[in-house]
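Input sequence (368 aa), recorded before submission:
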Amino acid sequence: MKTVSNNFVTISAVEFSTVLFFLILVSGFYYYFDPNTMLKFEVFPWDASSYRSLAESLHFGEGTIYERNPFSYRILFPWLYGYIHNITGISYIYSSLVLNLFSSWVVLMLSYVLWRRSNCSRVISWAGLIYFSILWIGPIRYSIFYPGGSFAFDILLIVIFFLIVTYDRKRNLFITLMSLIVIFMLSLGRETITYMTLFVTIVHILTKVIKYKTKLNSEILLKVFSELEKRDTLKLVLISISSILGYVFVRTIVYGQGNQGIAFDNIITFGWFHLHIAEFIYPYFYAFGTIALIISSMLLLKKMRIRLYDEFLKSIENFDILFLICICAVIFSTFGGTDSDRYLLWFFPFFSLFALKGLTVILTLDKK
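Predicted structure, token format:
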């Protein structure tokens, strides 16, 4: 089986600063030229209305807090922008905007680092950065259009989760404790963090007990499972416990009103809905556009698919976790509820890497 190349690039301070400057320019463009009715009139519709209520209740409420499901247990985002409001005095809507824009910048900069560290060229990485920075439903534009929502912040949670799970240095007590605290906090932001943590840990344990190497013919899956098997079992179990504790803790301070079985209802309703192949596929094209087109085209053409697989195997770090996270994205978008495209876009830093690798293959065809 091919191994990942160790010739990873380093990113200079100038390159990093240029990326940040570009993101600020894009933010300024959308802030001044895109419709900002919700921002201007401080409107908190849909899920944002629950977050707005929580932002106040979490800081000034007494006793048990009551909020409607399923938003009641996602307290990290409203708590943070409520804190920003309290220490700065700016309105709640601008506090949430600040948090979302900051999240957008961090996510896009970390995505750029991920692409460069995966041996995508500077030009191709910039193509990905520009695409998702100016994307109509990308994190920057969406943060300004709908500042009360937590879209960009939710992406940041997933990226931080990826960084924690893939941190693979020598075991260190301080780093371990910090990782457990951060995972606990992330679980206060979205229950999906707990689901992903458990999913990765369970699959890891299965690779330890199942003799998969004699049963798999796929080089991709062999790579995923062999890399996952080498992960630190104790670390994965500990972060799973920490995430579960966060999941339980938030339910001791907030009471979710309404349908208590909404998650099960969504699985049945939207799972049935997405049995239609067109309904299953279209969110990928709606969410990713050109990115989805590149990936699907590469997978359909045998020669390109082989080259793409080869590129994955030799140049992507932490391919096992990246692969499992994308599987989680597919599950969430299929069973999670409405706005399947939003669930997919939470994971754009990872899906986009496949497309950027595909673009690398296309541009280097005449060199091999």
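Checked by second reader. Residues 13-259 form one domain.
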